[in-house]
Amino acid sequence: MARAWDAPGGAAKGVSISFDGDRLATADKSGLVQLRWIDSDDKPQNLRGHMTGVWALAFSSDDKLLASADRAGRLRVWDVQNGKLLQEDSLNSDPIWSLAFADSDDTLLVGAQSGVLRYSVLEKKWAERLSTTQGQLTRVFLSANQKRLVVSDSLGHIQLIDVESEEIILKLQADNDTVWSVALSPDGETLAAATGSEIVSLYHASSGERFARLTGHEGGATNVGFLGDGATLVASDRKGRLHWWDTASARRLSIPIRAHKRSIWRMEVHPDGNSVVTTGDDGVIKLWNVLDTDRACNIGLPGFDMARRQQYLGDDRAFLACSF
């Protein structure tokens, strides 16, 4: 673990990392949003106004704007530089669970409980509905190129949507259980889904074929995220543990670690592709550098080939840093 911070309002919920990797936005169950420099010990900037838990946060691609949304359906857009509230709107008590900027930051994709809506940041008004879900929406994930959107719900449904045409490219059913989190690999070829049945499923995004079922996420898998190499998947569970998986072999890269004392409900991969930030019901926010030497040794330990050791340690240290 690289760093840790306390959430003043209790259980930590929403999290987002700026695209330049320098700033961290977090929120807690009280509705307090905090902005901080990741590598600084300076006090965070407090953004107040939400009256209930904030689960959804998103930076614009130029890192000038931060969007936040809460369980009461209130949406706010802030100026990152000075913390000023620029605009606010509401979905009339429809809880908002996920946010993502799209269309060159002109639009927010809002994952509300009833489905995905567009919100025009320029015109400051709600636009058309992009998608509806059969169950309650749980998460949305926008691909790095902003062309594909993955949507999950409480009945185990997953949709892969073309953002521009609004066409549903793929529909999946995951284990007839709540899908708490979804993610696409950096190349867009693999789709991962975390379910309440303690399973993380891996699918070929082109065909929808499931090629792996990763088990052992106690209490239910809550988050999934691909590291920058595209081959390593990080998952979290309701027991506060983190899991590292090799997607090609569907094998663990290390034993699970107890990251939080309670459930991890949000996790974000750092733009460097080598770190993750987790928020826990224990009221703690943690930054994990998965490539520090000790961690890399533990991750590489079950590997049978030198290529995986070199991936984490580099050519020079693959032979010297650990005793395999």
Molecular structure report:
The chain is mainly beta and 324 residues long. Helix content is 6%, strand content 50%. The chain is built from two helices and 29 strands. The chain has helices spanning 293-300, 306-317; strands spanning 3-6, 12-17, 23-28, 33-37, 45-47, 54-59, 65-70, 74-79, 85-90, 96-102, 107-112, 115-120, 125-132, 137-142, 148-153, 157-162, 168-173, 179-184, 190-195, 200-204, 210-214, 221-226, 232-237, 241-246, 251-252, 257-258, 264-269, 275-280, 284-289. Strands 22, 23, 24, 25 and 26 form a five-stranded antiparallel β-sheet that branches. A four-stranded antiparallel β-sheet has the order 1-29-28-27, with no helix packed on it. The chain has a four-stranded antiparallel β-sheet with strand order 2-3-4-5, with no helix packed on it. A hairpin with a 5-residue loop joins strand 16 (157-162) and strand 17. Helix 1 packs antiparallel against helix 2 (306-317). The longest helix has 12 residues, at 306-317. The two termini are 22 Å apart. Residues 317-324 have low confidence and may be disordered.
